[in-house]
Fold this protein.
Amino acid sequence: MKRREFLKSSLSLGVALSLGRAEVALSADVPDLVVVKGEPVRATERAIDALGGIGRFVKPGQSVVIKPNMSFASGIDVAANTNPDVVATVVRLCKAAGAKKISVLDHTLAAAESCLELSGIRAACNKVVSNCVHAVGDKRFYSEVKIKGAQSLKTTSVMREVLEADVLIAVPKAKSHGGAGVSCTMKGNLGLIYDRGVFHFSSLHTCVADLYSLLVPAFSVVDATKVMTTNGPGGPGKVIDYGEIVASIDGVAADAYIASSYEWFGRRVKPENVGYLKEAAARGLGRIDIDAMRISRLNV
Amino acid sequence: MMCRISGRRVAQGVSLFLFVSLLVFTSSQLSNDIIDKWASFYMLVDPLRLPIIFIALREISLHIILFIIVALLIIRFGRFFCAKICPMGITIDIIDNFANVDNKSLNTAVKYIALLAIAVCALVAGVNLSFHLMPMSIATRLYALVLYPFTTLIASGGLEVAQNLGLLDYATFGVRRYATVLYIVVLFTALAVLARHYKRFWCRYLCPAGAMFGLFSALGRYRRAVNVVQCIKCGKCERVCPMCAIDKIYSYDHKECIACKDCERSCPVGAISFGWRGKRESGSGTFNTVPITRRRLLGGAFAGIGVGLFSLTELKSLIYLPREHSDVIDAALIRPPGALPEAEFLARCVRCGECMVACPTNGLQPLALQSGTAALFSPVLVPAIGNCSNTCNKCGHVCPTSAIRELSLEEKRHAKIGVARILKERCLAWEEGKSCVVCQEVCPYNAIKLDRVAGAVASVPVIEENRCFGCGACENACPQALAAVIVEPTGAIRISEGSYVEKSLSLGLSLKVNEKTNIIEYQQEDSNGKLPPGFVE
């Protein structure tokens, strides 16, 4: 069943089943996590290759939404947005896989035009597929959706194109976040809904977990090349050059790796110290037991 | 009859197109420094602009040359500006075209008295009230702050239709909106009602710029003449004259004549001509419709003095401050960056709204009565609508009177406009223990840090005042319906000369956009053992 059909049927029946489990199909020869050190473009290619190749996720003729983090009006040195080369590489692979439509979308926090410009993502991706990068700010591009089984965020407005797309790919930035601890795949989903503010009225962590139960990417490629380790999400903060690309079919696992492998404000934390990761694991949305995972470490 | 479009109408069409284009370009992303420089061209040629500022501030500058050039042109060619170029006149011609049925006449002295009152008010009280009747200012506000928002709303609707048809992807068109524009709407509604019986009511009875031009044209000898031999006394010229300046065919008041030459064009026998006359001829065929009596002059002068004194003695007037510290500054009085010290700012600002249409976030708005009648319609930042963008310095570039100084981006980033305050009792993090970091996320000056404080569940935002520019990005983004972080005008740098960079440094401020300046390190071996912000035990 296609993602689109699945979503439509589940919505119309009012039984939006947890999409996550359907997609996280574990295969014996694919590792739980791929960590590639090296030059960002080749590392991104290698990481997706290690997950089984793009063709496993994107079939010819399908429509794809790629969700980077481009919410901030700052350049690559601040490390608040995803590295544009990483995003463009994913766009290129999707194009090569025969995707019919590829859109790079985010509901930006700062002024849309500045974000698209300064992040460098529009320039980089439009070179691959013309006019594919959009900041989606207007309410009319969103549709109200019920989240079945949600504890706090029972309804929310999601970008219509995301609901209609065949494949969703997360290309988040790994960075510090003053409210959530760490921002990565799961927290990045906030850029796909209209009312970002709602998260702050109820429990941020519960809402992030609720939203992730609705919007599960086919896979996540995390930009951990330069990591903003303090003062996130906007920064500027202390940026450490870890030079890694982390990929997984399980976005929760990718986030757990990010949380536990790097320093945050100069110290180490455990995945359980990130509220939404703990909730996600408890609800079975993904794994955070890093020590038990099969991690493939590569260099390019 | 006359189906051909006259040269005057063509000139008016071109002028209005240019006027509107400048405003639209200024507000768009296509704008650049050169367009911004010319954006207020029409404001620059308004004869009311400079003299009143100079009288109010008791100063004079070389800019007066532009005023002299305009005056010389009017002296030589009559009031052609009113007939062919003035966007206010064009607008009124359009209204007249629809609304006018007959053309009655009143006493045209009113506008001269108004001009006198404005000048006396500036002279006696140093208060510039020209904005109430300044034609370019009013026309700019009509097109920029009333009609332009209409078109943005319509365009936005059209875009939505196009997108429903699957076109144009995610393009959006920002809908503009402005405060206090009801004044302009009421004014033009009144003019439209009056237009039924009075052509060019505004120009004949109210426009002080027209009065000034009338006095200029009286200095020259550009005159209308009727060839008595050819004239068949049909009276057509008298009927078509929009200014009611012709009396009994042959004589006319040249102060009121706007040299539109409608009479010349309508004359069936070609008996009317315009031109520069000899000294002796220039007096013939003219008469004075303006009985400016001593009583009226005194009345105008007293009105000016009265209004000026009223402006100075209002509770919230900031023009004349007998005390060192005023305790009546309104919280809304967040001036644009680079705004001169308040008294000088108000003496210069002509309320044209150029800065408001140029402001990319729509944050600059006309003030209502919060700071007295003398500050009416002057620009203030309303962060709830839009913050002061740290990549923009347009307001100072388009200001036609330098009420807002023209600053480089670096200088502008130091022209502090206020300071943000957190209202803890409204704040999601402080009051309700929620993990809200929005204000910290959006602050481009890095002036908000998240801290763990005793008694607070979540990490809470704390303002570092000396880093805060007052841009209002935090207030704009706060998810609470009534923002829990608000900008107030405290600490704004208002200097009439010198560098804002140096001034802010001398005040011990640290205004830096996107620089690593306040990194807080939390160490593993922290004696409190507390986790960094956002993490949970």
